[in-house]
Write a structure and sequence with these properties.
The strands form 2 sheets. The protein has a 4-stranded mixed β-sheet. A two-stranded antiparallel sheet has the order 1-2. 62% of the residues lie in helices and 5% in strands. Strand 5 and strand 6 form a beta hairpin.
């Protein structure tokens, strides 16, 4: 009998050789596999290229961070959820829902234990968790570590738009887990589906993006109700048993949404954002359309081109849910640049599959564990080397905010402030005009007045309307120029350097505070 040239002799020899290895060496090889090397390199790249992890000022300058910490401080010290506005004198006592209270506790825990270093670590862990989930989902979809590695690396550049101490970073971990469970169900492993209600129970208390996650699950269920075998589409409808199970899981996900401290008001929150916060969306940079002149815009266009070219080289069959996810992800990213992170979460695994099918035609199972170990050691060294010193954090905080000026604000003052410093004023217990929680301010007309004041539209009349006696803002802003040339206002101090110089103006003569028209201070409300 002739011997078949491709008989499985090498595999038998490999198994035999492995069996002859010492036990410790087998364990070593399993630990330091190709995936460990890939994740080590990815972690090093994240540390080196992420602006927020490279420069403490960029990390601490986030305008939302400090009111998030102030919220968490109130919750952990009073053991009561915030239900009315605790900081601003313009809307003090008005009802307010905190849709991100659970996510705030993540960063507050880091800050409470390790101070500013704890904020850095919480941010680093959140980014790496998203990156590692992206890699593993890409690998399970493509079964090729190289393709998953490159897809993850490319898409990381899209994630830098929110790569900071943001609650949405925590929420995207939940979105990645949801997608991983649905992708596992596509592979025939449905045992994880019943974890989805628990994910949504956490998600609704973490961030309003749960609404998008629920929409994705609905799309998944609807997309699998029909069989399609036409052109590039090839799918078989869910079996009756699977369809029934998915509908029960979906019903459970909807039911658990009410498990929150605010009831229906928290469920309504993301809908309110879309329907009733037009000024918020129009005036915040990350809500603006994606500009193709930006580096992130070019990378987004490159990702789309890569998927198109890969499918042109060697096309594949698509399910309705997959094409719906791709179209939604890129539409959302180009309509609002902040959703580039979400586009990476949703499309990177499919990009890995396309790269594997069209470009990575050779197996990548061979690896050298010792080299992988060296890569891990190198990644750990990079993480330790780039970890900022305490002095760097303190310097970055001083560069980001006019701390001395904020400390000088008195309880009886009615200070108009830039939204960029409002969160720090909240954290320091200083009564603010407004911070970057634009929802409540838009609901009560304060955001419109704030924008008019800031951009010199009836500024002086509106300052009188709110009985403002002090103004704290960047010196380069138009209002600063107006006040410096307006009788009755004087510049009392500046702080900072260059474009980040802050100016504090004071109304000369009798002020609203002298007439007893000041509102309650944040210090009395927050503690």
């Amino acid at each position: 009998m002739d011997v078949i040239p491709d008989a499985p002799q090498p595999a038998t020899e490999t198994v035999f050789a492995t069996a002859q290895q010492p036990r410790w060496l087998q364990i070593f090889n399993r630990i330091f596999c190709r995936h460990v090397m890939s994740m080590a390199v990815i972690a090093a790249v994240v540390i080196i290229l992420s602006g927020t992890l490279q420069k403490p000022r960029n990390l601490l300058h986030d305008p939302d961070l400090w009111w998030h910490l102030a919220d968490a401080r109130i919750l952990t010290t009073t053991h009561h959820f915030i239900r009315v506005e605790p900081y601003s004198f313009t809307v003090v006592g008005k009802p307010w829902v905190n849709p991100e209270w659970l996510g705030e506790l993540v960063y507050w825990s880091g800050y409470r234990v390790l101070g500013l270093r704890g904020l850095y670590l919480a941010t680093e862990i959140g980014l790496l968790a998203n990156i590692f989930l992206l890699y593993w989902r890409g690998y399970w979809r493509s079964r090729h570590a190289g393709a998953a590695f490159w897809a993850t690396g490319i898409c990381f550049t899209l994630m830098t738009v929110n790569a900071g101490p943001r609650i949405i970073v925590v929420a995207y971990i939940l979105m990645a887990l949801e997608m991983a469970i649905l992708e596992a169900a596509d592979r025939g492993d449905q045992r994880w589906l019943w974890f989805l209600p628990a994910i949504f129970c956490v998600w609704i208390n973490t961030h309003g993006s749960w609404f998008i996650g629920l929409g994705l699950f609905v799309l998944y269920v609807l997309g699998g109700l029909v069989s399609v075998h036409a052109g590039a589409f090839d799918q078989t409808a869910f079996s009756p048993a699977t369809r029934k199970k998915l509908l029960w899981v979906l019903a459970a996900c909807v039911a658990v949404l009410i498990v929150n401290p605010y009831g229906w008001r928290l469920i309504w929150n993301p809908i309110d954002m879309m329907a009733n916060q037009k000024l918020n969306i129009q005036n915040v940079q990350e809500w603006q359309p994606l500009n193709l002149e930006w580096f992130s815009g070019k990378v987004a266009a490159g990702c789309i081109a890569a998927m198109v070219i890969a499918n042109g080289v060697r096309g594949r069959k698509w399910r309705l849910f997959e094409i719906a996810v791709v179209l939604f992800a890129w539409y959302a990213a180009f309509d609002h640049s902040r959703f580039l992170f979400m586009a990476a979460i949703l499309t990177a695994p499919m990009l890995a599959q396309d790269l594997d099918r069209s470009l990575f035609t050779e197996s990548d199972e061979k690896t050298i564990p010792v080299i992988n170990l060296l890569m891990v050691v190198g990644a750990i060294w990079i993480m330790a080397y780039f970890f900022p010193k305490q002095a760097d954090f303190e310097k970055g905080l001083k560069e980001a905010f006019p701390l001395e000026t904020i400390a000088s604000i008195q309880p009886q003052w009615r200070t108009f402030n830039s939204d960029g410093v409002g969160g720090m004023m909240d954290f320091q217990g200083k009564s603010s005009f407004l911070d970057s929680r634009f929802d409540t301010f838009e609901h009560h007309g304060v955001l419109k007045d704030f924008l008019d004041i800031l951009f010199s539209r009836d500024s002086l009349q509106l300052l009188d309307k709110y009985h403002i006696d002090h103004v704290l803002l960047w010196k380069k802003q138009p209002l600063a120029y107006l006040l410096s040339h307006t009788p009755g206002w004087k510049l009392v101090r500046t702080e900072g350097t260059g474009d980040n110089t802050f100016a504090l103006f004071e109304r000369a003569g009798p002020s609203s505070a002298d007439s007893g028209q000041c509102g309650p201070s944040a210090a009395s409300s927050a503690h």
